[in-house]
Amino acid sequence: MAEHYDLCVIGSGPAGEKGAAQAAYFGKSVCLIERAPKPGGAAVNTGTIPSKTLRETALYLSGLRQRGLYGVDYRVKSDITIGDFMHRERAVVEAAWETIDANLDRHKVTRIQGAAHFVDPYTVEVARYQQPQRRIRADVFLLATGSRPAHPPEIPFDGRIVVDSDDVLSLTQIPQRLIVIGGGVIGCEYASIFGALGVRVTLINSRERLLMQLDADLSDALRVELTRRMGVQVVLDTNVSAVTVEGDLATVTLSDGRALAADCVLYCAGREGNSEGLQLDNTGVKTNARGFVQVDSTFRSTTAHIFAAGDIVGFPALASTAMEQARVAMCHAFDLKYKMQMGAVLPYGVWTVPEIATVGMGEDEARAKGIAVEIGKASFRTNPRGLIIGDTEGFVKLVFTVDDRLVIGASVVGEGACELIHVPAAAIHFNATLDYFIDAVFNYPTLSDAFKYAAYDGLQRLQRRVSRSMEARARVT
Ligand SMILES: Cc1cc2nc3c(=O)[nH]c(=O)nc-3n(C[C@H](O)[C@H](O)[C@H](O)COP(=O)(O)OP(=O)(O)OC[C@H]3O[C@@H](n4cnc5c(N)ncnc54)[C@H](O)[C@@H]3O)c2cc1C
Ligand SMILES: NC(=O)c1ccc[n+]([C@@H]2O[C@H](COP(=O)([O-])OP(=O)(O)OC[C@H]3O[C@@H](n4cnc5c(N)ncnc54)[C@H](O)[C@@H]3O)[C@@H](O)[C@H]2O)c1
């Protein structure tokens, strides 16, 4: 006979864990099914936490973060092994497993290990390793099965020489030459990490800039830093026409005919939704061509009692948003009148070297939409804290409307960007104008203080606009 729960969650990544905890907190009986032996999904096991830990390790061991202080030759360790590189990653991942286990136990969530699929809209069957299948019935389902790296058939993935962002964590040695295909977030982050370790990295992107979703000045700053500080060769506006492997050597042929050789190729050009094994055709839940589940603004799928959150619904596909989407979904599923919508102001952090973070509307997007905006910028070069920590290339940028000086966007490039961005995020949430940054007092010496100088710069740019239009009017009359 099938067991029955108020809620059945499939997947224990950020969306599954937080959705389960949300419903359980409000007294619902919850069962969580996870096919992997450990919880946490891509965020803990293959994506966010491993890559961010490796970044810290690479920055520490290479001494890159301190080179602004002690010179370009500064190094903590010269022969970095894969063991050095991976040691801390394992420790952090294991600590994250414990945190998730404790959270689910505290909320009395029933855990089942196995791969779930639907047999009808209210019943899933769980295939378990060397154990009998188990049937679960529930009033509400949360699909939180995440995404996986896209594997185009023409790329000869072998998990050793041609790898995706999951396999890269199992490399047995640090490559000497690495080709990264894809200048999106994953490609740029791993190019930074391996570049910091001293690996000869070539980063290939089919688009004309890295991280096309960012303002051009931000992605240009990243390209310049990758090239200048880490010797990464950035190839833009170029497609890959073939990847071949012979012995221990990979060759990547570019659309312009060039052939590049390397001992490792990391392919990271997009992800697709983990929906195909769920047998959603037994439920009426609709997906798109890339396997992402269609949901409305409450994260309800095309079948009323089945919700979906996190990477399985596609954009923005971040751990940060996955958790919130799942909480919102559960509030609607059980009418909890608690958190009925996502926050409107979503920060976005990219853990490249340098770190980049944005919030709200970018300058380029605002101008493309015909919104009259001005910007204000301040460099870490003239910021005392920037000088102290040796980050003189970083900067902050505010985007605001010309008419009423309403701050609609902000970005930060440099040390601490992903933390600093929460300052303008709060300002945008509370509809602050530029005057907030003019009036606020910031600790000294801090990088946050740069926002005040960005606001001053914004005022000066506004003033120059007024002067220019007065001069133009004077010329006409
Ligand atoms: C390299 C990399 C770096 C990243 N860095 C960041 C970052 O810095 N910041 C950020 O916010 N986001 C980052 N992300 C994105 C983030 O990891 C994902 O957005 C997040 O993990 C999505 O959470 P989720 O719960 O939707 O899915 P996942 O974390 O993918 O979890 C889904 C779970 O469902 C399980 N599952 C799938 N199918 C079944 C089934 N049929 N039965 C049972 N279980 C099943 C899987 O085993 C998995 O454990 C990164 C991703 C990658 C790949
Ligand atoms: N810091 C973070 O928040 C973070 C970090 C990593 C991943 N993620 C998540 O993972 C998702 C997937 O990231 P991604 O980098 O794999 O994909 P992406 O879609 O962000 O970027 C893919 C890039 O590869 C390029 N490309 C595609 N095919 C190519 C080819 N044949 N040759 C050369 N270039 C090619 C595309 O033009 C694009 O610029 C992100 O959208 C994000 O949601 C987030």
UniProtKB/TrEMBL annotation:
Highest taxon in the source lineage: Bacteria
Cofactor binding description: Binds 1 FAD per subunit.
Requisite cofactors: FAD
GO BP, sorted A to Z: 2-oxoglutarate metabolic process
Gene3D superfamilies according to UniProt: 3.30.390.30, FAD/NAD(P)-binding domain
Cellular localization per UniProt: Cytoplasm
Predominant localisation class: cytoplasm
Chain positions recorded as NAD(+) binding sites: 182-189, 270
Record-level Gene Ontology MF annotations: dihydrolipoyl dehydrogenase (NADH) activity; flavin adenine dinucleotide binding; NAD(P)+ transhydrogenase (Si-specific) activity
Occurrences of domain FAD/NAD(P)-binding (ranges): 5-326
E.C. numbers: 1.6.1.1
Pfam families named in the record: Pyr_redox_2, Pyr_redox_dim
Keywords of this entry: Cytoplasm, FAD, Flavoprotein, NAD, NADP, Nucleotide-binding, Oxidoreductase
Binding sites annotated in the UniProt record for FAD: 52, 145-147, 311
GO CC annotation, single: cytosol
Residue ranges annotated for the Pyridine nucleotide-disulphide oxidoreductase dimerisation domain, each copy included: 347-454
Protein family: Belongs to the class-I pyridine nucleotide-disulfide oxidoreductase family.
Function: Conversion of NADPH, generated by peripheral catabolic pathways, to NADH, which can enter the respiratory chain for energy generation.
Name by which UniProt lists this protein: Soluble pyridine nucleotide transhydrogenase
Organism listed in the record: Pseudogemmatithrix spongiicola
Gene symbol of the encoding locus: sthA
